[in-house]
Amino acid sequence: MNKLKLANKAYKLYSIENLSAEEIAKRLGISRRTVFNWMKKYNWAKKRINIEEIKNNFGRDTEELALKMIKKITADIDAGRKLSQEELYSVMNILEYLPALKKSIKLPTLMNSANPKPLTPEMVAKIQREVFGEELR
Prior knowledge:
The protein has eight helices and no strands. By secondary structure, it is mainly alpha-helical. The model is unreliable at about 105-115 (pLDDT under 50).
């Protein structure tokens, strides 16, 4: 494996798997000094990917998107405007997967701040029946 590919592999181990320079050196069969040189040369510390932050932001952003879409759909209903089937389908999909997403990454929830009950699959089905007039699947 050439040096550039090895450096890229080392960076992935550092940034994604959060390994130390010593662990990277052992795994790739190179010296610690080489890993430290790459860390300094390519400024890995500033580029490190924070997987937990990404996961938490994704969950929060997904929930915010669902809330915005629900508010828009509600405003459309109140104003007597024709509802977009694409938006309805998107909201239904987000609502279906949001409980599992929130559970898997244990993020604080925006929806639960206004309503202390957790969003369960049964509640999602009820929303689909009452608001959208249909069952998903």
